[in-house]
Specification:
With about 170 residues, the chain is α/β, with parallel strands linked by helices. The chain contains 6 helices and 6 strands, in the order H-E-H-E-H-E-H-E-H-E-E-H.
Length: about 170
């Protein structure tokens, strides 16, 4: 690992204030295993959950809820689960893609590579995406709890502080 990456990680905030948003027509607070997996992984890495919500897979509701979370001063990052597939009801990607100012294409590419190692060619069905909205980080994950755990353990939990550090680095 390069010296500058390590320096940035050392300078990164100890904890990130995150919101968890589950997008699903079938999940409830009682069976939201994907949202639970995001929460658990972030908390285990020392991060704080400041908001958690669940909305139906309807573009207007996703837009309104995500926009409200991103407007909160106490939110550094929003991680969603659900709605990233290709069925007619999956609309998370379209909403998030319209909101993002800078895309982190490597997130989706690496996530699908890691997914391929676990599920084979079915990995191409995921439209997981990440990027920035102002100084906030947004990542969208599939609804599969196993996919959420993979993304959280391998990508987001270890790197989210560094991402937030980079977003704040040159802000006045």
């Amino acid at each position: 690992m390069s010296e500058s990456v390590e320096q940035h990680r050392r300078s990164a905030p100890d904890h990130v204030r995150s919101a968890v948003l589950t997008i699903s027509d079938s999940r409830t607070p009682e069976n939201d295993t994907g949202g639970d997996a995001i929460r658990d992984a972030l908390q285990a890495a020392g991060h704080e959950i400041v908001a958690r919500d669940l909305v139906k897979d309807e573009p207007g509701r996703i837009w309104d809820t995500l926009s409200a979370l991103l407007a909160r001063e106490d939110v550094d990052a929003v991680i969603t689960t659900g709605g990233t597939g290709i069925s007619a009801r999956d609309s998370t990607y379209e909403v998030v893609d319209r909101l993002l100012e800078k895309r982190l294409d490597g997130f989706g590419e690496v996530f699908r590579m890691l997914s391929y190692e676990e599920v084979g060619a079915a990995a191409i069905l995921s439209r997981a995406v990440a990027g920035t909205v102002g100084t906030k980080f947004v990542a969208t994950l599939p609804g599969s709890t196993n996919a959420v755990r993979l993304a959280m353990e391998k990508l987001l939990a270890p790197e989210i502080s560094h991402v937030v550090f980079e977003l704040r680095k040159h802000v006045e």
